[in-house]
Amino acid sequence: MLREMTKYPFYLLFHPFQGFWDLKYENKGKLRISLLIMLLLTIATIILRQYSGYVVNFNYPGDLNSINELQYIVLPFFLWCVSNWSLTTLMDGEGKFKEIVMATGYSLLPLVLMRFGNTLLSNVITLREASFYYLIESLAVLWFIWLLFIGTMTVHQYSVTKTVVTMALTLLVMGIILFLALLFFSLLQEMLGFVLAVYTEISLRS
Fold it and tell me: H-type helices in the chain, by residue range?
């Protein structure tokens, strides 16, 4: 069971074109596995921030809050998926929302491996060797972007140019959604404050 769960994600890691093709047309991808990878990334990030070596760890332990990782990983993950699905629906994309979630989740695997690996590496390297730590981190981020690019292109059956444009517009849509959400909650807070003030005024006069 464990072998079957890990075989395909690692196959996709090194054969992304065929891997994402199988995800879309051969039903090789599993939604629960992609969500598990996202959960592992959250755990790996928490461990990296808490237990990485002092050479590369500039965090103050007392200021770290594990719950904050949800807003830095889980929120952007689903925001990307929703934004991409909303945008590609208008741009003749063939990807379903489930396929977008799976493609995005599987693309996170290099970051998971990097953060677990860098946590161990950071505790044995010296200051002069810290460049290897940052090199691995940079390569993992580039690998993630590469996988996300191929996944987006394959899932929606886009050309290279259209994929680049779509990914850039997805980031723009994410920003718009965040702005509207903040505006909505700000207005809601103002309304609640007004209602509470009116209620308090009425209570004092009665």
Answer: 2-14, 16-25, 31-51, 68-69, 75-90, 97-107, 109-122, 130-156, 160-205
